[in-house]
Design a protein that fits this description.
Blueprint: H1 3-14, H2 18-30, E1 46-48, E2 51-53, E3 57-59, H3 70-75, E4 80-86, E5 99-102, E6 107-110, H4 119-126, E7 133-138, H5 147-158, E8 164-168, H6 183-199, E9 208-212, H7 218-231, E10 235-238, E11 258-261, H8 265-279, E12 284-288, H9 294-303, E13 307-310, H10 314-317, H11 321-335, H12 341-344
Parallel strand pairs: 3-4, 3-13, 4-7, 7-8, 8-9, 9-10, 10-12, 12-13
Antiparallel strand pairs: 1-2, 5-6, 6-11
Helix pairs in contact: 5-6, 6-7, 7-8, 8-9, 9-11
């Protein structure tokens, strides 16, 4: 599809209900209508916990909940794609409307509630994946009697299929889920996950990341960092959506749910930098939240991120955005004299 047609398609999608537009985008990508990116500049090639990436720009979870279009999104130019969040049993999520565009703020508020088709449908699609780094974001069913068991069930079912796993305990739209970020609960969860991983067939090491909220105090960041390091996880993804509300202009600003997009950039990057200090080289960081340009991605990397993820900005710019981000990121790295992405990590 040409750039002009992609621009037209993006404008058309903006005129639709956000969730309907997303469904239409997924169908279009499955039909082969997505863009195809040229080869990446060599300076963008990097490594993340042993995973070789052509570039450090990842697609955050939420876009490809059911592992339907990871191939087309890799072809569109993303260096890696994270699918999910997936729960053991299918889940309809919260009532609609549950997804809101905040046009003036270039933001999104969602209260989706982990709507997905469940592990079996997810696994059937992921098992057919080809080349490229594809991660699985694991969650718990809202009505689960054993939420920790939901995470280990996801790990068992998708073992050998996903390039890496993300443990999502930071969505604000599943009541009580963020309580798993406390030291005792997190220690128990990670202990069970590591024990489960150790019991599964061992071949190539499969990295595991923890996804955290941006709404954390310094004491909580320190406790999470120490717990992650103690259990030997590959890293932390900073961050999920925020329940805080900076000044917003859009009419949907008071909707309940997690806020993402441009207003999250400053908060999530500040928390990322604090995690970088707390990590002290013991684990990696992936930066997410508010990225809409090459400069944003570069800021995350300089704050300590080995790679970054984006999603909300696609609602405004379309899938061609990743090409512009990579071009500008390569130029910024070169202008500052860096030879690679890795050289710039934590340079701030």
């Amino acid at each position: 599809m040409t750039a002009d047609l992609h621009g037209f398609a993006t404008r058309l999608m903006r005129s639709l209900d956000p969730e309907d537009a997303h469904g239409l985008a997924i169908r279009g990508l499955k039909a082969g209508l997505g863009p195809r990116a040229p080869a990446d500049p060599p300076i963008l090639a990097t490594e993340l916990a042993g995973l070789r990436l052509p570039n450090p720009i990842g697609l955050a979870p939420g876009f490809d909940k059911n592992a339907e279009v990871f191939g087309p999104m890799l072809a569109a130019g993303f260096g890696f794609v994270e699918c999910g969040t997936v729960t053991p049993r299918p889940q309809v999520g919260n009532p609609r409307p549950r997804l809101f565009r905040l046009w003036q703020d270039r933001a999104v508020i969602n209260r989706m509630g982990f709507n997905n088709e469940g592990l079996e449908a997810f696994a059937a699609r992921l098992a057919r994946r080809g080349a490229g780094v594809v991660g699985a974001n694991l969650g718990a069913n809202k009505d689960s009697e054993d939420r920790l068991g939901d995470y280990t069930a996801g790990l068992r079912r998708l073992w050998g299929m996903a390039s890496y796993f993300t443990i999502n305990i930071s969505s604000p739209n599943t009541p009580g889920l963020r309580a798993l970020q406390t030291r005792a609960a997190l220690d128990e969860l990670l202990g069970r996950l590591i024990a489960t991983a150790d019991s599964l067939p061992q071949g190539v090491a499969v990295p595991m990341f923890l996804k955290v909220a941006p709404d954390l105090e310094d004491e909580e960041i320190g406790a999470i960092a120490d717990t992650v390091a103690a259990h030997g996880l590959a890293g932390v993804i900073v961050s999920n959506t925020t329940v805080s509300r900076p000044p917003l202009m859009s009419r949907h600003r008071d909707e309940t749910g997690g806020l993402s997009g441009a207003p999250l950039m400053a908060l999530s990057t500040a928390v990322l930098a604090r995690f970088h200090a707390a990590a002290d080289g013991r684990f990696l960081l992936i930066g997410a939240g508010g990225i809409g340009s090459g400069a944003d991605a570069y800021a995350k990397i300089r704050a300590g991120a080995a790679a970054v993820q984006l999603y909300s900005a696609l609602a405004y710019e379309g899938p061609g955005l990743v090409r512009h981000i990579k071009r500008d990121l390569a130029a910024l790295l070169q202008a500052d004299g860096f030879r690679s992405v890795a050289d710039a990590v934590g340079a701030r």
